[in-house]
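Bit of a strange request maybe. I'm writing a small parser for structure token strings and I need a real example to test against, not something I typed by hand. Could someone generate the tokens for this chain?
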Amino acid sequence: MTSFSSPGDRDPSEKRRRKMKRHIVMIGMMGAGKTAIGSELARRLHVPFTDSDAEIESAAAMSIGEIFARDGEAFFRDREAQVLSRILNGPVGIVSTGGGAWMQARNRELIRAHGLSVWLNCDLETLWHRVRQRSTRPLLKTPDPRGTLARLLDERGPVYARADVTFNAHADDSIEAAATRLIEQLRSVVPEFPEVK
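Reply from user aminoacidic:
Good idea to test on real output. This should exercise your parser:
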């Protein structure tokens, strides 16, 4: 079982001193809420939050769309794996990954070695509602972006389902409500999950 605290932290008086020993890594489709919920989770747990896509953009001094346009998806996936490795070998916290990151076997191995994967499972209508107004999604720059989103969801769903935890997102949840539900679910899966103030 994934451990989030040291073996000596069994006594109730030690609860507040529990420290996460492994990352919590958010995976799932674009628009599922990985960054929003992950940020709130990190805030409540008092640990760092890192968005791997933002780290890639910072390292490249380019947007992901620009990287795709200039260098192609294969190049982007290589950079993504490098950045993810750096993040996962750094201070323990909450990590949000891009929608395609978990689809790469090398990334799944990295995440399993360093953390607990959490799939934010979100239905197509909710995803489409969240992403349709944004022009920053390179994979949706097609003649039929909704159809592309549906196809990606169908292709990726079975692979996302290999995550350690599946969290079913609710369209009407606020970020705070979703984070609360996720914390409760994680606590049921990981008995040593840190106390949240």
